[in-house]
Amino acid sequence: MESRRLSMRGTRVPDADQRREGICDALLTWLYVESQSHYSGSTPAPEIIAAQSDWQSGPISPRELLDAAWTLMRQGLVTSTTPPGQPPALRITPAGSQALEASRTRRASPPTARGKRWRS
């Protein structure tokens, strides 16, 4: 079964799970870069995440980004110390850094060794 569908222009469009996983990956990568710049917490913006992560699957909505942040927080890969009702200031955890490094290793492996990087 094909996991992607064709758009009106004949290009491949990721399904919802692949898109969500890709947004989580882009957000985690961005937070990792931010942490290397010694920022203590960063509030992500969809257009910045997309621009800095080579995102090519259409615009990321604020809701998708928030869902990705919650997914990563539930998994313990990022934390937030922001009070409820305000945009989250996120920080990557040591577990998040390790997961990102492991996903980079998987990307360098043969396709048969790859698995899902983020699960919601």
How would you describe this protein?
It is built from four helices and four strands, in the order E-E-H-H-H-E-E-H. The protein is mainly alpha-helical. The strands form two sheets. Strands 1-2 form a two-stranded antiparallel sheet. The longest helix has 21 residues. The two termini are 22 Å apart. The N terminus and C terminus are likely disordered.
Spell out the helices and strands N to C.
EEHHHEEH
Strand content: 5-15%
Number of strands: 4
Q: C-alpha Rg, in Å? A: 15 Å
Distance between the termini: 22 Å
Number of helices: 4
Low-confidence runs of at least 5 consecutive residues: 1-10, 109-120
Label the overall shape: globular
The overall pLDDT, averaged over residues, is 75
Helix-strand makeup class: mainly alpha
Biggest sheet, in brief?
2 strands, antiparallel
Helical percent range?
40-55%
Strand order of the largest sheet: 1-2
